[in-house]
Design goal:
Structural class: alpha+beta
Shape: elongated
Number of strands: 16
Number of helices: 4
Helix content: 10-25%
CATH class of the largest domain: Alpha Beta
Order of helices and strands: HEEEEEEEEEEEEHHHEEEE
């Protein structure tokens, strides 16, 4: 009897030492939602989707062109919800789908975008009376998803350097932001007259276009970053339409590798380049 009890205790003791299997069962993630494809600057497509799962290892992106079959494009890591496809061609229709995945597999259904045709517009090309100097990006004033809008730069400087105008007189409410150059120009012309950098831009009529203006500080800096040799900018300071104070306005230095800007006395003659929007 005693041997039976001892045997039972040994068995119970051993059972108490057995490690339980606590490994969690991995299940495939749910699919992402709300995939949207829009054209970015130049020939690229911006993808954005919503992460609907909490256990993905990443996302698989597939692309098709001209109504063909979807093929693997790339993958991105967990919690990533954007991707820029820069390997696209002009005038081709693309669509995309995105799956989430982990060690158990990929989601059953991928988020699918609508069709998007890539435009042939590029920075530096002749268009709309000048050359494209900047294509609006998401969050820029003037940006419209699925469309291309931006800044057109006149093909040459105004014929001679010009003062900013309104020396020792403040022009209220000029703004540095993208999308404010045209309204800045109106304010300057109203306050200072046409003998000003803004005035000569407003008076410009070339290539059938008459809606030119002096770019704002941030507009001109974007143009600086995108400038190409065909735009023929000089290594010099150029006026923008953003005022610093009653005696000074800002100029962007095209001789500076970083497109630095400095306040300059308004009665200083500087180079002027007109822009318009498309």
């Amino acid at each position: 009897m005693r041997s039976i009890i001892v045997a039972a205790l040994v068995v119970l003791g051993m059972a108490g030492c057995v490690k339980k299997n606590d490994t969690a069962v991995v299940v495939a993630p749910v699919p992402p939602t709300g995939l949207v494809a829009t054209q970015g600057g130049g020939k690229q497509v911006n993808l954005k989707w919503t992460d609907a799962s909490g256990n993905e290892s990443g996302f698989l992106i597939e692309r098709r062109s001209a109504g063909g079959v979807f093929n693997s494009l790339t993958s991105v890591g967990p919690n990533v919800t954007t991707y820029v496809d820069g390997a696209v061609s002009a005038n081709v229709v693309y669509s995309y789908q995105v799956y989430s995945f982990n060690s158990a597999g990929r989601s059953a259904v991928g988020a699918v975008s609508g069709d998007i045709q890539v435009s042939a517009l590029e920075v530096g090309m002749l268009y709309g009376g000048g050359r494209i100097g900047y294509i609006f990006q998401e969050r820029d004033a003037g940006y419209v998803a699925g469309q291309e809008h931006g800044l057109i730069v006149a093909t040459e400087d105004m014929s001679s350097p010009m003062v900013w105008g309104c020396t020792d007189k403040a022009v209220a409410n000029t703004n540095a932001a993208i999308g404010k150059g045209a309204s800045n120009t109106d304010l300057i012309v109203t306050a200072c007259g046409n003998y000003s950098a803004a005035g000569v831009c407003a008076d410009l009529v070339t290539k059938g276009c008459s809606d030119w203006y002096l770019p704002s500080l941030n507009e001109l800096r974007k143009i600086f970053l995108n400038q190409q040799s065909v735009m023929s900018f000089a290594a010099a300071k150029y006026w923008c339409s953003t005022e610093n104070n009653a005696g000074y306005a800002y100029a962007v230095d095209f001789a500076d590798n970083f497109g630095g800007y400095v306040p300059v006395l308004k009665d200083t003659p500087l180079r002027v380049r007109a822009v318009r929007t498309f």
